[in-house]
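Researcher: We're reviewing a set of sequences before deciding which ones to prioritize for further study. For each one, I'd like a predicted 3D structure that I can look through quickly. This is Chorismate mutase. If possible, include the structure in token form so it fits the rest of the review sheet.
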Amino acid sequence: MNLDDIRTHISRLDSELLTLLAKRKALSLDVARSKLANPRPIRDQEREQALLVELINQGRQLGLDAHYVTRIYHTIIEDSVLSQQALLQDLLNPQDKAPAISVAFLGLTGSYSNLAARKYLSRFQASIIEHNCETFQQILDTVESGQAQYGILPIENTSSGSINDVFDLMQHTSLSIVGELTQPIEHCLLVAVDTDVSQLKTLYTHPQVYQQCSQYLKTLPGVKVEFCAASSNAMELVAGLKRPDVGAMGSADGGELHGLRPLVRGLANQKQNMTRFIVVARKPIEVAEQIPAKTSFIMSTGQQSGALVEALLVLRGHDITMTKLESRPIIGNPWEEMFYVDVAANVNSPEMQSALKELGRITRFIKVLGCYPSAEVAPTRIPSGALSQAGNTPRAEAEQPRHSRAYKADGSRLQIGRFYLGAREPLLVAMLGAWPGRQQLQEDARRLKESGGQVLAAPCFDNGDIQQGLQRLQQLREVAAQFDLAAMTAVGKVEELNRAAEYLDLLLLQPDQPQRGELLIAAGRCTRPLLLPLQPDTAASLAEADLILKEGNQQLALLDGQGLPLVELLALQQQTHLPLLSRLEGEASLLPELAHALKEAGVQGFCIELDGSQQADTLAPLAQRLYRG
Ligand SMILES: O=C(O)C(=O)C[C@]1(C(=O)O)C=C[C@@H](O)C=C1
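Model: Here's the predicted structure for Chorismate mutase, in token form for your review sheet.
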């Protein structure tokens, strides 16, 4: 076959794949109708798990790797669940069906809000009438006056945080929240004509975007930044100017609508940048029982001590999970605050009704802002053994050392990315001895994932070059995310620690560094889990642990890198509630048995150093022994 023939073949297969996907989608809508007739929840994770296991096995026989199959399947399931939810909502709220739907949002064509509005309304299969607004207030006015059916408002961003103006406006509107959606944000430098970064003199952008890209902008000291009401205004301006010395910052998709092209991509400080939007309308909607729902409400409690805690205990008492809590000052009343709360519950459920009644009795003000289908479809995982649910019961005896069991009786459990340390299954960390190239890093990540390990560690700062370290952090984080792994690096200086804390899931504190005290204090103030290697003097290490815990960070684990004798390991575990990891070294063929014995002795995680060729033969049998007995 020549190239053209092969491509024809591929195109034919792709079109068959699409036909099959469309058929699958139609079937999943049939499932939704049947679940409406015989009420059952839309999501059935047991069914998903069974399907996934079957597909992974089938895929293996066809030469497809497990990770690839899982990723595709998650995308299909997410679409299936969201389509089923949309269908149920349509059936339950027939007034939403109309040939044309109008929506108000911030900015012009191409703004992130515009892209979010189009994405949200695409499910209605109606034509869209767009109302461009200049302020959030104008969006609310446009919906309140009936000119638009829906308004789209950004409420929080993963890198710049909550959008306070929107919270403040929600206190006073008569509108209801009827939906939410999360939009990935990728800021690019957009230009209208052929040019390069060195020619740029002025950049037009929105203040929020400016804040999210502050690190990149520091690399362009000679470039003047001008603020616009929205990124789409910046794009329109630059498209009109058609000059090589001006650029706009915004999304590539939005820029394309104005004829702009991206000169540099991925400008945001945090690479995983997402904005959550809420959708508001004049009337509240009803959310079908079978759909995971969220309810948003605002409340103000009195100033007496413990008033907020009392209110939150009401939620806990009804087994209602809170997904967001934000406090905002009450205008005109400087000493009181309004709390904005999101919970994972349907407002009509008996638990939520009863919680609201109880809250009504103990708060000064409470108003439900809306109940809407949750847009989060968390991927189903293949069970790797249920996680221990053992609760932690801190005892507030200040004189006890913080690391000790006298201070906290139960073993601590840390969350590392989406994995747990201190749960039933041990954590497996693969540490690369030297920084590999990107391709090798991906290869290592794939191997680790396929063997069942969870954390990929690589030295980002081994040559003292902080700029290069930053690039490595980004690369490590991207590769780890690609393979659904957590990422770790070793840090020896405060600056390294702060940088690594922005990107990675776990930080290893290097021993024997100058200015150790400063490093430990910074570690105690950061919010990432930490791994503290034990020194020959264990008591000195526990004193260091106490220093960290006292500063606030409770996510601390110890690493035995010197092969402590079993009795000492056991004694250590009686002494401290901090989880313990062991570094495995020595004859590769003995490591699985060694790890198994240590696991039996209560060690909760293992670090294994890999260099190139070694890993294929070490990782798989080790993981097999650890996870399959
Ligand atoms: O089988 C079902 O119950 C479905 O709703 C279909 C489906 C799927 O698309 O395969 C979707 C959602 C459920 O969580 C499980 C499976």
